[in-house]
Amino acid sequence: MRPARAFAALPAIKPSKNAPNRFTTAVDQGTTSHCKGKAFSSMSVSALAAVPKKPPVPTSKIFFILHTCQNAAFVLVRIHSGYSNAFGGTVAEVALGSVSLGGETTKIIIPVSDLEQVGQAVGAGGDIFEIRADLAGALTSQLASRLAPFGPLLLTLRSTAEGGACAEGEYAGRVRELLSLQPQAIDVEIARPEAAVLIEAAHRAGVVVFGSFHSFSATPPVDQVLARLIRASEAGADVCKIAVMPQHAQDVLTLLEALARARQQIDRPLIGIAMGKLGQISRLAGPQFGNCATFATAGPASAPGQMDAVLVRKVLGN
Ligand SMILES: O=C1C[C@@](O)(C(=O)O)C[C@@H](O)[C@@H]1O
């Protein structure tokens, strides 16, 4: 069993060691001036003066050549730095107590919805425990106090519209109640009209927000998956999450492609899941594809395709 962790009160968002795009900018600038230097040194005044019989090269032509050289080098370096940056956008790490999301390892989140599951979840060594409040109902606060000594808590209320058991009209009020349990993190469904006020309320309470989207019927096209993650980040979510249901292998690739592209555009930790057996590979994709965490089971699964937490940890090598 992994050692128990203290229950830290407030989460904090740590600035990244590497600021976004700084690498690209530095390389671009470096090469641009390198190109400029080379061009000027190969065009000395004496060299031009050594051919007096030819008509002098017009200044505008010289500038045109210099400009072309500079642009060509600039484009080459953009291509080169694109390779270097593949899957390598930088992320501002988010701390849930002592657990940091967005670094080099994918953290394991174990969903729990009844008291019997507590021992299993702790024994399996989850990094974070998710209490599915829509399934746990009145047991939620008891579960929170039992699990709190063993790791940070993510409280989630999944609405019926997104595959859970919480009635639409109760969603906002119950999310506010969950905040009073002082978890490290809370899930907010970004598609809900109350999302903005709930995110603000969570931040005021010092709680990290997982902004989420779920589709249990299909996988939207790449651009739409990407747009949803961007929308979560623009809405102020600290961690942006999407779970889709693949119908065939291409849908799993769609999810992974969107995730890899999101990694280039969003400077926050991401979670992308293709649910069901078909999508299981996405749950093991790890930080290389931008996944900061994966949901895995100790006892009953909270969504199709979740795998055993101990097995997942072995595969991820955490
Ligand atoms: O958002 C998610 C992801 C999830 O749906 C999954 O597919 O593992 C499981 C849910 O409990 C959790 O809230």
From TrEMBL:
Biological processes, Gene Ontology terms: 3,4-dihydroxybenzoate biosynthetic process; amino acid biosynthetic process; aromatic amino acid family biosynthetic process; chorismate biosynthetic process
Source taxon at top rank: Bacteria
Keyword annotations: Amino-acid biosynthesis, Aromatic amino acid biosynthesis, Lyase, Schiff base
Reactions catalysed: 3-dehydroquinate = 3-dehydroshikimate + H2O
This enzyme's EC code(s): 4.2.1.10
Keyword Amino-acid biosynthesis on entry: yes
InterPro entries: Aldolase_TIM, DHquinase_I, Type-I_3-dehydroquinase
CDD domains, per the entry: DHQase_I
Pathway: Metabolic intermediate biosynthesis; chorismate biosynthesis; chorismate from D-erythrose 4-phosphate and phosphoenolpyruvate: step 3/7
Residues binding 3-dehydroquinate: 130-132, 158, 283, 302, 306
Signal sequence annotation: none
Gene Ontology molecular functions: 3-dehydroquinate dehydratase activity
EC primary class: lyase
Transferase listed as a keyword: no
NCBIfam families from the UniProt entry: aroD
Xref: HAMAP family: AroD
Subunit structure: Homodimer.
Similarity comment: family membership: Belongs to the type-I 3-dehydroquinase family.
Protein name stated in the entry: 3-dehydroquinate dehydratase
Source organism of the structure: Winkia neuii
